[in-house]
Amino acid sequence: MPLLNENSKHQTQNIEGWFAVRRFVKDTFGKRPDINAILFLIGMNEVGVYKEEWEKEEKQNLMHVAVCRLFLEDGYYKFVGKDQDGWPHYELLKAIPNIHLKDQEGLLKEKIVAYFKEMKYI
Questions:
Q1: pTM (2 d.p.)
Q2: Which residues have CB under 8 Å from 29's CB, separation 6+?
Q3: Domains contained in the chain, number
Q4: Which candidate in 30, 39, 52, 113 could, as Cys together with 17 as Cys, close a disulfide (CB 3.0–4.6 Å)?
């Protein structure tokens, strides 16, 4: 199996982008984040609310908002509006493909990098 293939440049760019996201979050918040922490931050960013303490259900909802936002452009979700508390709501248009866990993580990382670039954080 060759060490370098046609996907190696794409994979290197993804890894570099992911490290740039993690560096940005670490430099901003002082902690090295995992993927769940970054999803949580994206959710807070989309809701526009910062609190010191979040309930477990609120954290789950923030991460769901993040996933919806990340998959919006691919046509999996449609933004339907915000509720009276300012929380965004999305409608599922089509199911996200059922792929292997490692592939899911890689796809999420790609979407996170794209989000951070779109928001001009990296």
A1: 0.85
A2: 41
A3: 1
A4: 113
